[in-house]
């Protein structure tokens, strides 16, 4: 069944989170839509409409093929209950088509959303998943090893994130502005490497990494790294800066607690790797992310390292299923690393304000070139 939904786009923060999932065996009968035959569900995303070619699909691996016919860069999401992000694909330029592969093991009511301009709640419509499915990760040793290995890597990053953020928080509370400024990009490095995992929890990311102009519910404060970044670089430390620092530390420890038991799937890893590159394209190369400190290249490097970490965990499966893809990934990651080294200054990087338009063009091209093979990983590991 084809449907077209149209709705006003409300401005709000949507930090993308990836929760895409692995190949499944579905118990549901075919729905009669495009997904019934195993093919992708076509999504036509325009500036004021979001036409999804099927309103339901059987549980298991669902692929959406999203074509942007509008004039704005867009995103496409599948949400579960409470706006839990089941899967997303970001940074789809006008005229481009990108696939979102998402595993939905449980039948029920879901929501699709196109987000022209990558802002707002998006143009939403209900989506039904029928039956239930079993994740293949439980049956495939290589995939299970990949998720276990990645979980260990994420844990190691959080074990560094906690003390480094504590050092930053202590400096803020001590009123030591220069030390806090020096520690800000260092602490964020560990955060940026694992951001898709944090985003999968939904509520934590806006608290830790929200921007000042994100829309919030009444009474919800602007908190996290960027609130303190503004205090340090623009406004000067405020009366409530110590409380903001304590809140950041509490949210980081909440992340640590939740991550200890999080269940990851191979396609989450693959989609997370691509989302980190999308973060680079939409937030770092544009200078939007660290708009007060201009330390965006630190985040850029960390996002790429996070993407590489996820892909590395899946590498045995990639090599088994598509031996040609791994060498291309190696080459493209190496090219981005080499380019970033040109901008290294000591243990850090040049400020964003020191970059020329030519610098930004070269970075955008390198990230786009890397994003193309990384976008193939989800399809390969679920094939």
Automatic annotation (TrEMBL):
Question: Keyword Signal: yes or no?
Answer: yes
Record keywords, A-Z = Signal
The entry's localization annotation reads: Periplasm
All copies of the EfeO-type cupredoxin-like domain together span 18-118
The record's listing under InterPro entries reads: EfeM/EfeO_iron_uptake, EfeO_Cupredoxin, Imelysin-like, Imelysin-like_EfeO/Algp7, Imelysin_sf, Iron_uptake_EfeM/EfeO
Imelysin-like domain residues: 146-376
User: Under what name is this protein listed?
Assistant: Iron uptake system component EfeO
Q: Which organism is it from?
A: Pseudonocardia hierapolitana
